[in-house]
């Protein structure tokens, strides 16, 4: 059982830009805002780039289906990465994903994390009514940053970050998803205004 008293916040970072990252700046501002709202909140921060979060390999997939008592030492190590990531996301009341746009999509580290937490029978299942997500009662925020502008105008259809994240999170049961965007971070004329605007939006989050 979760969600009885203290809020648990899971903050996922996936930018390669470290302290210069706009998505991380947004994600951290959101964490600060939520901490002010829930002073006793427990925050877990996972920097996928810093910890070089592992991609799935063939043996990881095998380890998902081997009975516990038959796992090799290598399989146990691989399985632990996925199990731990799932435990962290299952426990979270609030999930914040910092999502930079790289080549119109999400960073590969973030994709690796999503691959590790998407497990049949644990975070989703197929029933008579089709797929059912099993990560329940979790609110998600996507703190997105992109060099160009995608929220409006002709480039909108080239944004595969927000639609993809909403789809995969929804598939896993997380349907309450809010997207905050710092856009035009590669353009001097839009950068600062965009950051100020999105930090203003964060102030209004409740
Ligand atoms: C490898 C790479 C690919 C990028 N691809 C795109 C892109 O397809 N579209 C875009 O608008 N900006 C692109 N950018 C710019 C980033 O989206 C922008 O710098 C953003 O602020 C990155 O988020 P961050 O500041 O949190 O790292 C790319 C940047 C990098 C490093």
TrEMBL record:
It catalyses: N,N-dimethyl-1,4-phenylenediamine + anthranilate + 2 NAD(+) = 2-(4-dimethylaminophenyl)diazenylbenzoate + 2 NADH + 2 H(+); 2 a quinone + NADH + H(+) = 2 a 1,4-benzosemiquinone + NAD(+). FMN binds at residues 15, 21-23, 101-104. Its cofactor is FMN. SUPFAM superfamilies: Flavoproteins. The keyword Nucleotide-binding does not apply. Gene3D superfamilies: 3.40.50.360. Its EC number is 1.6.5.-, 1.7.1.17. The keyword Flavoprotein applies. GO terms for molecular function: electron transfer activity; FMN binding; oxidoreductase activity, acting on NAD(P)H as acceptor; oxidoreductase activity, acting on NAD(P)H, quinone or similar compound as acceptor. Keywords: Flavoprotein, FMN, NAD, Oxidoreductase. It is an enzyme of class 1 (oxidoreductase). Residues 7-200 form the Flavodoxin-like fold domain. Binds 1 FMN per subunit. Belongs to the azoreductase type 1 family. Also exhibits azoreductase activity. Catalyzes the reductive cleavage of the azo bond in aromatic azo compounds to the corresponding amines. PANTHER family: FMN-DEPENDENT NADH-AZOREDUCTASE 1, FMN-DEPENDENT NADH:QUINONE OXIDOREDUCTASE. HAMAP family: Azoreductase_type1. Homodimer. This is FMN dependent NADH:quinone oxidoreductase. It comes from Flagellimonas taeanensis. The lineage of its organism: Bacteria, Pseudomonadati, Bacteroidota, Flavobacteriia, Flavobacteriales. The gene is azoR.
């Amino acid at each position: 059982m979760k969600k009885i008293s203290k809020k648990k916040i899971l903050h996922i970072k996936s930018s390669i830009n470290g302290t210069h990252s706009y998505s991380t700046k947004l994600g951290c501002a959101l964490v600060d805002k939520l901490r002010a709202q829930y002073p006793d909140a427990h925050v877990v921060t996972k920097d996928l780039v810093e910890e070089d979060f592992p991609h799935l390999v063939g043996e990881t997939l095998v380890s998902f289906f081997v009975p516990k008592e038959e796992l090799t030492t290598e399989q146990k190590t691989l399985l632990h990465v996925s199990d731990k990531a799932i435990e962290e996301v299952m426990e979270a009341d609030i999930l914040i994903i910092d999502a930079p746009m790289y080549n119109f999509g999400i960073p590969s580290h973030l994709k690796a994390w999503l691959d590790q937490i998407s497990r049949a029978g644990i975070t989703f299942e197929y029933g008579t009514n089709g797929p059912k997500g099993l990560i329940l009662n979790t609110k998600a925020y996507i703190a997105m940053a992109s060099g160009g502008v995608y929220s409006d105008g002709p480039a909108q259809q080239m944004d595969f970050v927000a639609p993809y994240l909403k789809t995969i999170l929804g598939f896993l049961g997380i349907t309450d998803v809010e997207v905050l965007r710092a856009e035009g971070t590669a353009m001097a004329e839009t950068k600062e205004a965009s950051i100020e605007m999105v930090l203003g939006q964060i102030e209004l989050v409740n």
